[in-house]
Amino acid sequence: MAKNKPSIILFSLAGLLYLVSALTENEYLALLTKPIIIPAIFVYYFIESRGKINNLFVFSLFSFFVGDMLYLVNIKDYYLLGLVIYLSPYLIVLGFLIQDIINLLKRKTINKSDLSFLIILFFLVYLMISLLNVLDTESDEEFVYFLLFGVELVLMGVFATLLYVNENSRVNFFLIISVSLFIISDIFFILNKNLFPLLIFKIGNVSSQIISYYFYTRYFIEKQKQLK
Question: The pTM is what?
Answer without folding.
Answer: 0.91
